[in-house]
Amino acid sequence: MIRVMGITRDHRVERGLSLEDTQSPNYVWSWVDFNAPSPEESEKLDTFFHFHPLAIEDCLHVLQRPKMDHYEDMQFLVLHALDPDTLGTVEVNLFLGGNCLVSFHQRAIKEIDEVWEKMDSRLAHRKKWDRGIYAAAYMIIDALVDQYFPCVYAVEDELDELENRGSSESVELLMNQVFDLRGRLLKLRRTIVPMRDLMYRILNSEHIQGEREPRAYFADIYDHLLKLSDMIETDREMTADLRDSYISLNSNRMNGIMKTLTVITTVFMPLTLIVGIYGMNFAYMPELQWRYGYFAVLGLMVMLAVWMILAFHKRGWFK
Predict the structure, then answer these.
(1) What are the beta bridge partners of residue 226?
(2) Which of 29, 138, 143, 190 is the most exposed place for a label (fewest CB within 10 A)?
(3) Which residues form a coiled coil (predicted)?
(4) 105, 35 in Cβ contact below 8 A?
(5) What is the pTM for the complete model shown?
(6) How far apart are CA 286 and CA 305, in angstroms?
Protein backbone atom coordinates (compact mmCIF):
# COMPACT_ATOMS: atom_id res chain seq x y z
CA MET A 1 0.00 0.00 0.00
CA ILE A 2 1.19 3.50 -0.85
CA ARG A 3 -0.32 6.36 1.11
CA VAL A 4 0.42 10.01 0.47
CA MET A 5 0.10 12.99 2.76
CA GLY A 6 0.48 16.63 1.71
CA ILE A 7 1.07 19.63 3.96
CA THR A 8 -0.31 22.92 2.70
CA ARG A 9 1.19 26.36 3.24
CA ASP A 10 -1.08 27.00 6.21
CA HIS A 11 0.18 23.73 7.77
CA ARG A 12 -2.93 21.68 7.16
CA VAL A 13 -2.62 17.98 6.45
CA GLU A 14 -4.37 16.47 3.44
CA ARG A 15 -4.39 12.69 3.03
CA GLY A 16 -5.45 10.33 0.29
CA LEU A 17 -3.41 12.07 -2.40
CA SER A 18 -1.79 10.49 -5.44
CA LEU A 19 1.92 10.41 -6.14
CA GLU A 20 1.49 13.09 -8.80
CA ASP A 21 0.02 15.43 -6.16
CA THR A 22 3.37 15.54 -4.37
CA GLN A 23 4.69 17.70 -7.20
CA SER A 24 1.86 20.22 -6.87
CA PRO A 25 2.82 23.74 -5.70
CA ASN A 26 -0.15 23.65 -3.34
CA TYR A 27 1.88 21.59 -0.88
CA VAL A 28 4.97 22.79 0.97
CA TRP A 29 6.12 19.25 1.54
CA SER A 30 4.68 15.75 1.41
CA TRP A 31 5.12 12.37 3.01
CA VAL A 32 4.83 9.18 0.96
CA ASP A 33 4.67 5.96 2.96
CA PHE A 34 5.29 2.58 1.32
CA ASN A 35 3.54 0.33 3.83
CA ALA A 36 4.25 -3.34 2.98
CA PRO A 37 4.24 -2.51 -0.75
CA SER A 38 3.80 -4.98 -3.56
CA PRO A 39 6.63 -5.48 -6.10
CA GLU A 40 4.78 -3.23 -8.56
CA GLU A 41 4.48 -0.49 -5.95
CA SER A 42 8.14 -0.86 -4.97
CA GLU A 43 9.11 -0.08 -8.55
CA LYS A 44 7.79 3.46 -7.99
CA LEU A 45 11.00 4.18 -6.07
CA ASP A 46 12.76 4.02 -9.42
CA THR A 47 10.16 4.90 -12.02
CA PHE A 48 8.58 7.84 -10.20
CA PHE A 49 11.07 9.11 -7.61
CA HIS A 50 14.23 8.09 -9.50
CA PHE A 51 16.16 7.32 -6.32
CA HIS A 52 19.71 6.04 -6.49
CA PRO A 53 19.88 2.33 -7.45
CA LEU A 54 22.03 1.49 -4.44
CA ALA A 55 19.49 3.01 -2.06
CA ILE A 56 16.66 1.11 -3.76
CA GLU A 57 18.68 -2.08 -3.51
CA ASP A 58 19.10 -1.52 0.24
CA CYS A 59 15.32 -1.11 0.55
CA LEU A 60 14.51 -4.33 -1.24
CA HIS A 61 17.20 -6.39 0.54
CA VAL A 62 16.41 -6.31 4.24
CA LEU A 63 18.69 -6.85 7.26
CA GLN A 64 20.76 -3.76 6.52
CA ARG A 65 22.68 -2.20 9.37
CA PRO A 66 21.36 1.24 10.50
CA LYS A 67 23.20 3.79 8.42
CA MET A 68 23.02 7.12 6.61
CA ASP A 69 24.06 7.61 2.97
CA HIS A 70 24.12 10.76 0.85
CA TYR A 71 23.15 10.73 -2.80
CA GLU A 72 23.43 14.16 -4.41
CA ASP A 73 20.53 16.15 -2.93
CA MET A 74 19.00 13.24 -1.00
CA GLN A 75 19.75 11.59 2.36
CA PHE A 76 18.99 7.91 2.81
CA LEU A 77 18.50 6.48 6.32
CA VAL A 78 18.18 2.86 7.38
CA LEU A 79 16.45 2.51 10.76
CA HIS A 80 15.39 -0.45 12.87
CA ALA A 81 12.07 -0.92 14.64
CA LEU A 82 11.72 -3.55 17.36
CA ASP A 83 9.17 -6.32 17.50
CA PRO A 84 8.30 -6.41 21.23
CA ASP A 85 7.29 -10.08 21.10
CA THR A 86 10.38 -11.56 19.46
CA LEU A 87 12.83 -8.62 19.83
CA GLY A 88 13.49 -9.03 16.13
CA THR A 89 14.18 -6.00 13.97
CA VAL A 90 12.00 -4.54 11.24
CA GLU A 91 13.82 -2.34 8.78
CA VAL A 92 12.55 1.17 8.07
CA ASN A 93 14.04 3.19 5.21
CA LEU A 94 13.72 6.95 4.89
CA PHE A 95 14.46 9.10 1.85
CA LEU A 96 14.83 12.81 2.66
CA GLY A 97 15.29 15.26 -0.11
CA GLY A 98 13.77 18.43 -1.51
CA ASN A 99 10.21 18.78 -0.28
CA CYS A 100 9.38 15.09 0.05
CA LEU A 101 9.84 12.43 2.71
CA VAL A 102 9.52 8.81 1.58
CA SER A 103 9.31 5.99 4.12
CA PHE A 104 9.60 2.37 3.05
CA HIS A 105 9.01 -0.74 5.21
CA GLN A 106 8.11 -4.30 4.31
CA ARG A 107 5.78 -4.74 7.29
CA ALA A 108 3.18 -2.56 8.94
CA ILE A 109 4.74 -0.72 11.88
CA LYS A 110 2.57 0.59 14.68
CA GLU A 111 4.85 3.52 15.50
CA ILE A 112 4.76 4.89 11.95
CA ASP A 113 0.98 4.49 11.86
CA GLU A 114 0.72 6.51 15.07
CA VAL A 115 2.91 9.31 13.68
CA TRP A 116 0.86 9.28 10.48
CA GLU A 117 -2.42 9.67 12.39
CA LYS A 118 -1.14 12.32 14.79
CA MET A 119 0.59 14.50 12.22
CA ASP A 120 -2.25 17.07 12.29
CA SER A 121 -1.97 17.82 16.00
CA ARG A 122 1.81 17.69 15.99
CA LEU A 123 2.20 20.19 13.17
CA ALA A 124 -0.26 22.57 14.84
CA HIS A 125 1.97 22.90 17.91
CA ARG A 126 5.35 23.00 16.18
CA LYS A 127 7.49 25.99 15.44
CA LYS A 128 8.18 27.15 11.94
CA TRP A 129 11.40 25.17 11.49
CA ASP A 130 9.75 22.03 12.79
CA ARG A 131 7.17 21.63 10.05
CA GLY A 132 9.25 20.12 7.27
CA ILE A 133 10.52 16.72 6.26
CA TYR A 134 13.23 16.69 8.97
CA ALA A 135 10.55 17.28 11.58
CA ALA A 136 8.63 14.26 10.29
CA ALA A 137 11.84 12.22 10.22
CA TYR A 138 12.50 13.21 13.83
CA MET A 139 8.97 12.14 14.83
CA ILE A 140 9.43 8.75 13.17
CA ILE A 141 12.85 8.10 14.73
CA ASP A 142 11.63 9.29 18.13
CA ALA A 143 8.63 6.94 17.98
CA LEU A 144 10.85 4.01 17.02
CA VAL A 145 13.33 4.69 19.83
CA ASP A 146 10.55 5.13 22.39
CA GLN A 147 9.46 1.57 21.63
CA TYR A 148 12.90 0.33 22.76
CA PHE A 149 12.30 1.37 26.36
CA PRO A 150 9.44 -1.07 27.18
CA CYS A 151 11.51 -3.93 25.74
CA VAL A 152 14.52 -3.06 27.89
CA TYR A 153 12.36 -2.45 30.97
CA ALA A 154 10.71 -5.87 30.53
CA VAL A 155 14.12 -7.56 30.56
CA GLU A 156 15.17 -5.53 33.62
CA ASP A 157 12.01 -6.57 35.49
CA GLU A 158 12.70 -10.24 34.79
CA LEU A 159 16.31 -9.76 35.87
CA ASP A 160 15.26 -8.19 39.17
CA GLU A 161 12.79 -11.00 39.78
CA LEU A 162 15.45 -13.59 39.01
CA GLU A 163 17.91 -11.90 41.36
CA ASN A 164 15.37 -11.83 44.21
CA ARG A 165 14.52 -15.51 43.78
CA GLY A 166 17.99 -16.50 44.96
CA SER A 167 18.43 -20.21 45.47
CA SER A 168 14.73 -21.12 45.76
CA GLU A 169 14.91 -22.94 42.43
CA SER A 170 17.33 -25.38 40.92
CA VAL A 171 20.60 -23.96 39.69
CA GLU A 172 20.08 -25.53 36.27
CA LEU A 173 16.75 -23.72 35.81
CA LEU A 174 18.21 -20.42 37.03
CA MET A 175 21.18 -20.75 34.68
CA ASN A 176 18.84 -21.37 31.73
CA GLN A 177 16.91 -18.22 32.60
CA VAL A 178 20.12 -16.21 32.92
CA PHE A 179 21.33 -17.34 29.49
CA ASP A 180 17.90 -16.57 28.02
CA LEU A 181 18.10 -13.02 29.40
CA ARG A 182 21.63 -12.62 28.07
CA GLY A 183 20.43 -13.71 24.63
CA ARG A 184 17.61 -11.17 24.69
CA LEU A 185 19.98 -8.43 25.84
CA LEU A 186 22.29 -9.33 22.98
CA LYS A 187 19.41 -8.89 20.52
CA LEU A 188 18.61 -5.49 22.01
CA ARG A 189 22.26 -4.48 21.91
CA ARG A 190 22.52 -5.39 18.23
CA THR A 191 19.64 -3.00 17.53
CA ILE A 192 20.31 -0.13 19.92
CA VAL A 193 24.07 0.33 19.54
CA PRO A 194 23.98 0.71 15.71
CA MET A 195 21.05 3.13 16.08
CA ARG A 196 23.09 5.12 18.59
CA ASP A 197 26.00 5.29 16.15
CA LEU A 198 23.62 6.39 13.41
CA MET A 199 22.25 9.23 15.53
CA TYR A 200 25.82 10.33 16.26
CA ARG A 201 26.46 10.52 12.53
CA ILE A 202 23.27 12.50 11.99
CA LEU A 203 24.22 15.00 14.69
CA ASN A 204 27.63 15.52 13.16
CA SER A 205 26.46 15.58 9.55
CA GLU A 206 26.60 18.78 7.54
CA HIS A 207 23.69 17.58 5.42
CA ILE A 208 21.07 18.11 8.12
CA GLN A 209 19.21 21.26 7.23
CA GLY A 210 18.21 23.91 9.72
CA GLU A 211 19.68 25.70 12.68
CA ARG A 212 20.55 24.56 16.18
CA GLU A 213 17.06 23.70 17.33
CA PRO A 214 16.45 20.65 15.10
CA ARG A 215 19.85 19.31 16.11
CA ALA A 216 18.78 19.66 19.75
CA TYR A 217 15.81 17.39 19.07
CA PHE A 218 18.00 14.79 17.38
CA ALA A 219 20.43 15.13 20.29
CA ASP A 220 17.57 14.24 22.63
CA ILE A 221 17.07 10.96 20.73
CA TYR A 222 20.81 10.35 20.94
CA ASP A 223 20.66 10.82 24.72
CA HIS A 224 17.86 8.28 24.92
CA LEU A 225 19.94 5.78 22.96
CA LEU A 226 22.94 6.43 25.21
CA LYS A 227 20.76 5.73 28.23
CA LEU A 228 19.47 2.51 26.67
CA SER A 229 23.02 1.43 25.84
CA ASP A 230 24.13 2.00 29.43
CA MET A 231 21.12 0.08 30.73
CA ILE A 232 21.90 -2.88 28.49
CA GLU A 233 25.56 -2.94 29.49
CA THR A 234 24.60 -2.77 33.17
CA ASP A 235 22.10 -5.59 32.72
CA ARG A 236 24.68 -7.71 30.91
CA GLU A 237 27.09 -7.20 33.79
CA MET A 238 24.36 -8.23 36.24
CA THR A 239 23.63 -11.39 34.26
CA ALA A 240 27.36 -12.15 34.20
CA ASP A 241 27.51 -11.72 38.00
CA LEU A 242 24.44 -13.94 38.43
CA ARG A 243 25.96 -16.54 36.13
CA ASP A 244 29.20 -16.56 38.13
CA SER A 245 27.25 -16.74 41.40
CA TYR A 246 25.19 -19.70 40.21
CA ILE A 247 28.31 -21.46 38.93
CA SER A 248 29.98 -20.93 42.32
CA LEU A 249 26.85 -22.11 44.12
CA ASN A 250 26.70 -25.21 41.96
CA SER A 251 30.40 -25.87 42.59
CA ASN A 252 29.92 -25.52 46.33
CA ARG A 253 27.00 -27.94 46.27
CA MET A 254 29.03 -30.39 44.24
CA ASN A 255 31.94 -30.05 46.66
CA GLY A 256 29.58 -30.76 49.56
CA ILE A 257 28.28 -33.88 47.84
CA MET A 258 31.81 -35.07 47.07
CA LYS A 259 32.87 -34.44 50.67
CA THR A 260 29.94 -36.50 51.97
CA LEU A 261 30.72 -39.36 49.62
CA THR A 262 34.39 -39.19 50.56
CA VAL A 263 33.61 -39.43 54.27
CA ILE A 264 31.30 -42.40 53.73
CA THR A 265 33.87 -44.14 51.53
CA THR A 266 36.68 -43.49 54.03
CA VAL A 267 34.62 -44.87 56.92
CA PHE A 268 33.76 -48.05 55.06
CA MET A 269 37.27 -48.71 53.76
CA PRO A 270 38.68 -50.32 56.98
CA LEU A 271 35.35 -52.05 57.58
CA THR A 272 35.51 -53.52 54.09
CA LEU A 273 39.09 -54.65 54.80
CA ILE A 274 38.03 -56.49 57.96
CA VAL A 275 35.07 -58.12 56.22
CA GLY A 276 37.34 -59.13 53.34
CA ILE A 277 39.85 -60.74 55.66
CA TYR A 278 37.26 -62.82 57.48
CA GLY A 279 35.56 -63.66 54.23
CA MET A 280 38.58 -65.69 53.02
CA ASN A 281 38.08 -69.46 52.87
CA PHE A 282 41.12 -70.57 54.92
CA ALA A 283 40.76 -73.63 57.09
CA TYR A 284 42.95 -72.44 59.99
CA MET A 285 41.71 -69.07 61.30
CA PRO A 286 41.72 -69.13 65.13
CA GLU A 287 39.04 -66.45 65.50
CA LEU A 288 36.55 -68.61 63.61
CA GLN A 289 36.53 -71.14 66.47
CA TRP A 290 36.00 -68.50 69.17
CA ARG A 291 32.46 -68.42 70.52
CA TYR A 292 32.27 -64.60 70.66
CA GLY A 293 34.43 -63.89 67.63
CA TYR A 294 31.55 -62.73 65.47
CA PHE A 295 30.28 -60.23 68.04
CA ALA A 296 33.81 -59.03 68.79
CA VAL A 297 34.48 -58.27 65.13
CA LEU A 298 31.15 -56.46 64.82
CA GLY A 299 31.92 -54.41 67.93
CA LEU A 300 35.37 -53.59 66.58
CA MET A 301 33.87 -52.43 63.30
CA VAL A 302 31.29 -50.22 65.09
CA MET A 303 33.91 -48.67 67.38
CA LEU A 304 36.23 -48.07 64.43
CA ALA A 305 33.45 -46.37 62.43
CA VAL A 306 32.41 -44.17 65.41
CA TRP A 307 36.04 -43.23 66.11
CA MET A 308 36.61 -42.20 62.47
CA ILE A 309 33.39 -40.15 62.37
CA LEU A 310 34.38 -38.31 65.58
CA ALA A 311 37.86 -37.70 64.20
CA PHE A 312 36.46 -36.26 60.97
CA HIS A 313 34.06 -34.07 62.94
CA LYS A 314 36.90 -32.75 65.08
CA ARG A 315 38.84 -31.84 61.95
CA GLY A 316 35.83 -29.87 60.65
CA TRP A 317 34.95 -32.12 57.74
CA PHE A 318 31.24 -31.77 58.44
CA LYS A 319 31.14 -27.95 58.47
Answers:
(1) none
(2) 190
(3) none
(4) yes
(5) 0.75
(6) 24
